[in-house]
Design a protein that fits this description.
alpha/beta; DUF2332 domain-containing protein; UCP012608; Rossmann fold; 9-stranded mixed sheet
Length: about 325
């Protein structure tokens, strides 16, 4: 896929109906020869829309108007490029806990959670958040994670988590203003609710920090998993992470995680972890596939805003 088509697809499948600002911006970049030429000098993994847009926002550049964005990016390309090369998208969206919750609550309790690609670890607190599935509320407090749920009754209880750990090549610290600023910059411009959610989730993590380990998802996963308490059910999980990983290394990871004790929850784009014979999601929007121990269960949207269950009931 060319860089131009990547941006056009992002506009249609990810930003449409979710962020008009990024939809306009992505279409504009897809047709801009000068910006595409600059992006073409970067490694393929560094050309993605979320990374470019997030870096410009982090630097204080404009994203609302495509012409102003273009002028800023081209004028300040040396700074933009340096930040792009130094960073990866680490969108730590606590809202994704809403699509993980049905699988987590169906497993034997208590749980020892180990997130691969944990960023700042905000998805390691599914027991601390409240959830609203339509008019059904689970839990109490802030933040409240809203999710459209079809095909399954909402969970009745929260999971019981006794251990939480994360593995990341570059773990972020929510008590570090620079790290929190990067997490904020990765949130799409119109999403004030997600920005408020980030602050509330960050406060929870700051008050009770998780164990975050700098390491590789293959080389360092077994040692971290071995630190989980034996009396708890180990759950290794990840959301929108494996697209960063080259396919051969991705295959090594899936082979490894299947051999670990406990359970494995994946929430990834279907092209990243393909499964044969899947029902088609509706419309052109990009859906991720939720799977438990390699068994597909549901389609999910990228920020946890929707869960379409088609798999067997759990529990």
């Amino acid at each position: 896929m060319t860089t131009a088509s990547t941006y056009a697809e992002f506009a249609v499948r990810e930003a449409h109906g979710v962020s008009p600002t990024y939809e306009r911006l992505a279409f504009a970049v897809s047709r801009d020869a000068a910006l595409l030429a600059r992006l073409g000098t970067l490694p393929p993994a560094k050309r993605q829309p979320n990374l470019l847009f997030g870096v410009v926002r982090l630097l204080g550049g404009p994203v609302e108007d495509p012409a102003a964005f273009r002028d800023y990016a081209l004028t300040h390309w040396a700074r933009v490029e340096a930040e792009i090369r130094a960073r990866v998208t680490q969108t730590n969206e606590a809202g994704r806990c809403a699509v993980l919750l049905p699988a987590l609550t169906a497993l034997p309790q208590p749980l020892a959670l180990l997130e691969v690609g944990a960023s700042a670890g905000l998805c390691l607190y599914p027991d601390r958040y409240a959830y609203r599935y339509g008019d059904h509320l689970v839990g109490a407090g802030d933040p409240v994670l809203d999710c459209r749920l079809t095909g399954l009754a909402p969970p009745a209880v929260l999971p019981r988590v006794v251990w939480r750990a994360g593995l990341d090549l570059n773990p972020l610290d929510v008590t570090d203003p620079a790290d929190l600023a990067w997490l904020d910059a990765l949130i799409w411009p119109e999403h004030a609710h997600r920005r408020a959610r980030l602050r509330a989730a960050a406060a929870i993590a700051a008050a009770d920090p998780p164990l975050l380990v700098r390491g590789d998802l293959v080389d360092d996963l077994p040692a971290l998993a071995a630190r989980a308490p034996a009396e708890a059910t180990l759950v290794v999980f990840h959301s929108s992470v494996l697209y960063h990983v080259p396919p051969p290394r991705r295959a090594e990871f899936t082979e490894l995680v299947r051999r670990l004790p406990g359970h494995w929850i994946a929430n990834e784009a279907p092209a990243v972890l393909p499964h044969a014979g899947m029902p088609e999601p509706r419309g052109e929007a990009l859906y991720h596939l939720l799977a438990l121990d390699g068994r597909p269960l549901a389609w999910t949207r990228q920020h946890g805003q929707e869960l379409i269950w088609f798999g067997p009931l759990l529990g």
